[in-house]
Amino acid sequence: MYMIESKGGAIACMLLALLFLGTWPAIMTLTERRGRLPQHTYLDYTLTNLLAAVIIALTLGEMGPSRPNFITQLSQDNWQSVMFAMAGGIVLSLGNLATQYAWAYVGLSVTEVITASITVVIGTTLNYFLDDRINRAEVLFPGVACFLIAVCFGSAVHKSNAADNKSKLQDFKSLETTSSFEVETISANNGLTKGKAKEGTAAFLIELEKQRAIKVFGKSTIIGLAITFFAGICFSLFSPAFNLATNDQWHTLKHGVPKLNVYTAFFYFSISAFVVALILNIRFLYWPILGLPRSSFKAYLNDWNGRGWSFLAGFLCGFGNGLQFMGGQAAGYAAADAVQALPLVSTFWGILLFGEYRRSSRKTYTLLISMLLMFIVAVAVLMASSGHRK
Fold first, then answer.
1. Whole-angstrom Cα distance, residue 191 to residue 78?
2. According to the UniProt entry, where is the signal peptide (predicted)?
3. pTM of the shown model
4. Which residue, of 32, 84, 245, 387, has the greatest Cβ tally within 10 A?
């Protein structure tokens, strides 16, 4: 198998993972805003996410002189470590599924900031102790504190932006209490359907509501924040579970049984994530949540609108997770949590593709800039804490 042995190689893996993991949420949000049901999108996504893990395992997991390789480990008595890897895949799948709905309620940027910050505060602390403190604590924990501050800024940005949107819609006060069915009638009566609305305007927000799959007008933002915090807790546990799978800190393996390599662990990790996503999303097809329309497996198979984008999102997430784990195995999983700076990438896509924060107040822009600067500082500090696993 191929192994990353230098700190420079580990950091390169983290940076590439950062790009991939910050881009795939934007793609998923794009399909939802174009009206594709999230159940359909996630089923496509989970297929290519698993395929990415298989590709990594059969290539990087088989090349090079290091042993044991991927195929060899499939038949070894390492079920204890396999269980840790699969537990990590389960919580990651639950977190990803939750964020798919949170994006609609609180926006791509704020969702990614809050979940990433919770992940770092809890997950990085756990990984630091699991990795036998190979990362420099005097550098690592100030970085964790910066991520925690970013959570506060992220919540403030969401609150301020929600107030901005409410102000824009003040002439359409009934939108906050009416059903999504009435939105179309109101917007048509006010001539908002003629031409393409400018991003950030009331007309734009109403057109978006009409087109998107998840209707959010009249829904409490508390729902979105609750889903976001649940996702953050799930994300904070998957990396420590993967760490336990590859390094056996609790000595659960029998004497003489090799530890799982990154590629074998990632394969089992992705298998469990796939199974959970498959079961839940097929259920959501027939018994949808949050007011989504009912669908069917046949309707999913016939829905090719946005399927290519969904497949791309799965590949990006799969390869991004694999690169994160490769970097973490070399430089410490606590330092590898620097990839949680993905909101820097997601916010860029949110502004560029979806017009988030367009025509917002000066207060919102000030909070947004403060949030992003705090993230930049946190990532720089966290990467500076990188160690070297013996």
1. 65
2. none
3. 0.84
4. 245
3-state SS of the chain is: CCCCCCHHHHHHHHHHHHHHHHHHHHHHHHHHHCCCCHHHHHHHHHHHHHHHHHHHHHHCCCCCCCCCCHHHHCCCCCHHHHHHHHHHHHHHHHHHHHHHHHHHHHCHHHHHHHHHHHHHHHHHHHHHHHCCCCCCHHHHHHHHHHHHHHHHHHHHHHHHHHHHHHHHCHHHHHHHCCCHHHHHHHHHHCCCCCCCCCCCCHHHHHHHHHHCCCCCCCCCHHHHHHHHHHHHHHHHHHHHHHHHHHHCCCCCCCCCCCCCCHHHHHHHHHHHHHHHHHHHHHHHHHCCCCCCCCCCHHHHHHCCCCHHHHHHHHHHHHHHHHHHHHHHHHHCHHHHHHHHHHHHHHHHHHHHHHCCCCCCCHHHHHHHHHHHHHHHHHHHHHHHCCCCCC
Residue 306 tokens, joined: 């946005």
Joined together, the tokens standing for residue 312 give 């791309």
